Amino acid sequence: MPHLDPARLRLPGGPRADLALAGVVLVLVGIAEGQRLGPDWQATPSTTLSWILAVAVCAALPMRRRHPLATGWATTIGTGAYYLLSTVDGPLVVIPIAALYTLAAQGRIQAAVAMAAVMIIGVGAGALAGTGDVSGTAVFMLTGWLAAVVALGAMRHGRVAYAEEEARLRATQERLRIARELHDVIGHNLSMINVQASAALHRLAKDPGQAQEALTAIKQGSKEGLQELRATLRVLRQADEQAPTAPAPGLSRLDDLVSSAARAGLDVRVEHSGADRALPAAVDLAAYRIVQESLTNAVKHSKAHLVVVRIHHTDRDLKLTIEDDGQGAVPGHAVGSGIAGMTERARALGGTLDAGPGATSGFAVRARLPLPNPPADHHEPIGGAVDDQDPAG
To answer: Which residues pair with 313 in a beta bridge?
Structure first.
């Protein structure tokens, strides 16, 4: 016995739905028009013309999505002519109502209102002339139906426009996130490589031993950069690919940044304060990237020799301060995308970031990243609190 899958039982959509609706309406019109035929089933000229109009109106419905305006007016005029010839109140009015909804759903509200007004005026004139079954009650009911159809179509158009705008916004945010990640990953390592390459060229003739050390640092830095780039690109994998096995960067890998900066001739000191606690993945990644970008800027722009990284933990937030002893901000120098990216990271988490001249000299970056509320039971193991976090951030 064949198995029936309810999930495959779907109503037709698109042109198939239009053909189905037109077919049902045409059958109902045929049943209604059959009442006009005499005992010998002989059709009068008006009956024949009514049939032709009904077929033409129903045949025009499948074109409402490609040519909504032309289909709307054609079905409206054809239906009006049909009711002038026919003495029965058939269901053909469903066709122009469907075309009216399409106009409103596509945002052509003025054309939809104009078409609805023509339909109401035409039916109202028929009621005043005492044509057939048309009455004042029918005009009132038709007005309500047409107003509801236009409102539903306009609502549909608004929902579709909102969904499209939201999709565009999500795509823009995703592009910015990807650009920020690639900038942080590639920019840091390439800056270190650039510094070491300059040092190697400068020392090659005078001190080949130091040049070899610089080239070794370039090799290590390029290797680390390639690994991070591959890890970042794996995040952009297709949906059916396996998830990356390497954990996202965090403050636990701060020693790697310190070592990389040291190879570029930068002395980095890290100071921790406050009660250390497990950080959410998003906060941990943002803190790592902020420190990474700050060290990159110190190597590229500040000409600094010493950088102090202060990390302060509280129950409510994580505070970062990265200060160097370099030349500070260069007057008239445009702020690069690195500081903008750090600011966006902090704001995305509800935090703040300030970058500018240091207290005494050099350049300083100060960030505050809020943390979720601490668990009510402080005796709960830290590992249990981490398990509740979304690893994807």
So the answer is: 274, 318
Residue 231: pLDDT above 70? no
Q: Which residue has the higher pLDDT, 241 or 373?
A: 373
Q: What is the value of pTM for the model shown?
A: 0.44
Cβ contacts of 29 within 8 Å, gap of 6 or more: 54, 58, 90, 91, 92
DSSP 302: I
- With tokens 């609190």, the residue in question is 385
User: What CA–CA distance (Å, rounded) separates 329 from 298?
Assistant: 10
Residues 391 and 281 sit within 8 Å (Cβ to Cβ): yes
Q: Which CATH architecture has domain 247-372+384-393?
A: 2-Layer Sandwich (3.30)
Q: Is the torsion defined by CA of 332, 337, 338, 340 positive or negative?
A: positive
Domain boundaries, the chain: 11-134, 247-372+384-393
Q: Residue 225: pLDDT above 50?
A: yes
Query: What pLDDT, in 10s, does the model give residues 13-55?
Result: 567 788 888 888 888 877 777 666 655 556 667 777 877 888 8
Question: Which tokens sit at 368?
Answer: 């505050």
Q: What is the per-residue pLDDT for 318?
A: 93
**Token code pair at residue 389:** 């976090």
What ranges in the chain are assigned the alpha helix state H? 15-33, 45-60, 68-85, 94-105, 109-129, 136-203, 208-235, 254-263, 281-297, 337-348, 382-387
Q: What's the whole-number mean pLDDT along residues 362-377?
A: 79
CA distance 368 to 349: 10
Residue 270's beta-bridge partner residues? 309
